[in-house]
Amino acid sequence: MAVVVSIRRLNELEETAADLRELALVLARSVTDTGKQVSLDEVLTAFGHTRESLSADDE
């Protein structure tokens, strides 16, 4: 199936789709957010890294 639309309308549709994706993300985060904050070091540890191991990867 094909649809013919102006470039202006295509841009509007693409912007609307992006807005809807962002809205879905915000809604999902608002429903699942526990309010708990996690430090960068905790995240790195959870993934088996440290700040030092990341620095070593750059060298």
Helix content: 55-70%
Q: Spell the H/E element sequence.
A: HHH
What are the segments in which pLDDT stays under 50 over at least 5 consecutive residues?
none
Query: Beta fraction of the residues?
Result: under 5%
Largest sheet: none
Distinct helical segment count = 3
pLDDT average, as an integer? 93
Q: Could you say which structural class the secondary elements and strand pairing correspond to?
A: mainly alpha
- How many strand elements? 0
Oligomer: single chain
Globular, elongated, flat, extended or rod-shaped: what is the shape? elongated
What does this structure look like?
This protein has 59 residues and is mainly α. The chain contains three helices and no strands. The longest helix has 26 residues, at 7-32. The model has no long low-confidence stretch (mean pLDDT 93).
Please sum up the structure shown.
This protein is mainly α.
